[in-house]
What does this fold into?
Amino acid sequence: MENLTLLPQNLSSNGGAASQNKFIEANTEAIELKEIRDKHIIPVFLKDNEPAISHVEFVEAVSETARDVFGISELSKPMIRVSHPIKGRTYEARHKKANELLPNEKTIYYERMAYMVSLPNMIKNINGQLLELTIGGVKAYNLDNFNSTKGSAEHFKLFIGFKNTVCTNLCISTDGTKLDLKAKSIEDLYAKAFELFTSYDGVEHFNEMEAFTDYELTESQFAQLIGRSRLYQHLPKEEKLGIPELLISDTQISKVADCYYSDPNFSRNDNGSIDLWRFYNLLTGAVKSSYIDRFLERELNSFDFTKQVRNALDSNSGDFWYLN
It folds into this structure.
């Protein structure tokens, strides 16, 4: 990580526009950490009424880990998206009609939360687009078993990678992602985040992405890949064996095809070709429409799939099903 180029933080945005972009869309809404802390209740384990690790504690524990690992005193403000609200009311208001409830009689928490935080001044450049080193994660209470006691492990998803500042697309790799991190306490969560952050090779990850700019798909190859990607969704299970997995949905594939022509940053060249860096960003842009509980899996799959396309172009063997 020490080889990342350091730039002034005010160079890391595209005229301030990137901060307005959503890093995930679907049915989510933006929210402030303070609002979650001050206004949301915390679910509890039924057998002992002890609280689960809250969304706020998750964000703060992982942020503290990043500050310790990278020697940073302050991090950027977290970008937070939530979905699946669980609404309730106080006991005293149990007989009121919904439109009669006072603000202090309503309770709420969100079942699912995704967030990311940029690490200041840890920035790289690909094709004139600035990439910020970023941490974040997903907490989905629906994955936890609350019919137990506080000692039960809770499920988290955690990542460290890059955010493309022109579009807020997330770029993550296998060694920077934990899709099933289990923790029983804040201390346990800190320890596992520390392990992930210290083992992540940001330089290698960046170099792999930068190498995408050296490979191009012709218009014909892109069309073949898009067509096969749509077919893959409908293949019988036995025929999918041996074919590289593609988690992107049919609707998202259509979005990739549309943006191939229309995206202001990643569309095709005049001759119809497109390099793999732009293709990769078309994938990561499309999967932003995923629900929170599938978001990171599809972001990671976008990177792995693009590497497989690169390997196929390198070998020119014709064995890659999507291009043969």
User: Anything to note?
Assistant: Residues 5-19 have pLDDT under 50 and may be disordered. Residues 292-315 form the longest helix (24 residues). The longest strand covers residues 106-126. DSSP finds nine helices and nine strands in the chain.
